[in-house]
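Standup notes, structure subgroup. Blocker cleared on the heme C input:
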Amino acid sequence: MRRLCLLLAFFVSPAMAGEESVRLKDGEGKDKVITQCGLCHSLDYIPLNANIMDKAGWEKTVNKMIKGMGAPIEDGDKKIIIDYLVSHYGR
Ligand code: HEC
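Run returned:
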């Protein structure tokens, strides 16, 4: 039992330290996406949705995150983030 707890702590703590196991593709805007989109949920959401999203889909989702969920993303960053998502995780 004790061993299991140690193992769990090992796997859980990097995530709690804010490090993501998800590796996003390199490209302009990646750092913005990591800092702004990882605030509330895992960055997994991005690759998981990649094959169903086109440009309109990502625009809608990013707008939903800003207006609906309250993501603190500035207008200038929004375009960079959407461009990144569309070119690396678009359908
Ligand atoms: C202020 C918090 C917050 C931020 C910041 C945020 N999201 Fe979300 N996101 C949510 C919530 C809440 C949900 C819906 C609940 C859930 O499914 O966990 C969600 C769901 C999603 C989904 C699942 C599909 C959907 O529409 O529900 C995707 C994809 C997504 N977010 C992408 C992003 C991207 C890309 C960014 C950066 C631009 C981002 N999120 C930033 C809160 C946030």
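Discussed briefly. The radius of gyration is 15 Å.
Next: hand off to the docking folks.
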